[in-house]
Amino acid sequence: MLLDAKHRPWMIGTLLLGAAALALHLWLGRDVPGGLRGGSAVGLWYGVVGSLLMLAVGMLSLHRRLPLRRWLGKRQTWLRGHIWLGLLAVLFIWCHSGYSWGGPLEIALWVVLGLTTLSGLLLLLAQALIPTMLLRRIEAETPIEQIAFVCDQMRRRADELLEVELARLAAVASNLSDAQAEERVKLKLASDELRLIHAPIRAYLSPRHDDSAPLADPLKAELLFDQATRAATPASETLSRLRLLCDERRQLAEQYRLHRWLHLGLLIHIPLTVVLLVLGVVHAVASVYW
């Protein structure tokens, strides 16, 4: 999600509410020795508001699973609320703590809260940078769930190109006279070279990308195709088309790698959010009984 103009009301509202909440907390605790603590009436209210904000932020994952989610607003709106309400929750929790670390449980809460916030900010940064990187590196972006299908289509296309070119070369060779034996040999070598290079091309166009394959390296791929073109000049046009297929597969692999960073960020951020909510409940229960 990009931090565009639609974030402005959220940002202004968060800054105003945050500044007001912090000023109010400082003012109410001006005459309290050591400042307001979490167990005070004001501290408890700040803790309740912070906890409710965290629960609201955590509801994002449930939004897409609700059958009537369209009545609850767009997912983009929830994403914006997730960002800004999450930051506001950190401020309320900080005020609730009395600006201190507290005991072991509270320290654990702070650590998890810090990691959750940091992972969320890094995820937001990645969501802002990756689309730009895709535009620069990828000519035509493909939905991630469609990459395997596109790879299968490219393999079929490579097979068709080989079959058609071999048939063409065979047809041309059959029309040559005995005096053109040298040309027939060139056509035979071109056919052999096509069959030889088709195997690694077909393997490389697999839905499961092999980073160690020579064709995965642009320089090695260029060298391989240049050698094949010199050895199979009559099939140079088909080799150019096969080269384009490999270039496209390389772009799909790059796109998948970039998107995988986003998914990795989610795999870190979401469990941390769950742990944070659980520790928050434990903290609330422990505060009541102890």
Low-confidence stretches: none
Q: How is the main sheet built?
A: none
Q: Into which percent range does the helicity of residues fall?
A: over 70%
Q: Class by helix and strand content? A: mainly alpha
CATH fold-type name of the domain at 147-249? de novo design (two linked rop proteins)
Which value, in Å, is the CA radius of gyration?
31 Å
Strand content: under 5%
Report the order of strands and helices.
HHHHHHHHH
Q: Can you tell me the overall shape?
A: rod-shaped
| Number of helical segments with 4 or more residues | 9
What is the top-level CATH class of the domain at 147-249? Mainly Alpha
How would you describe this protein?
The chain has 290 residues and is mostly helical. Among the domains are: 5-100; 147-249, de novo design (two linked rop proteins). Helices cover 76% and strands 0% of the residues. It has nine helices and no strands. It has helices spanning 8-28, 41-58, 60-63, 75-96, 104-137, 147-174, 181-204, 218-231, 236-289. Helix 2 (41-58) packs antiparallel against helix 4, helix 2 (41-58) runs antiparallel to helix 9 and helix 6 packs antiparallel against helix 7 (181-204). It is rod-shaped, with a radius of gyration of 31 Å. The two termini are 42 Å apart.
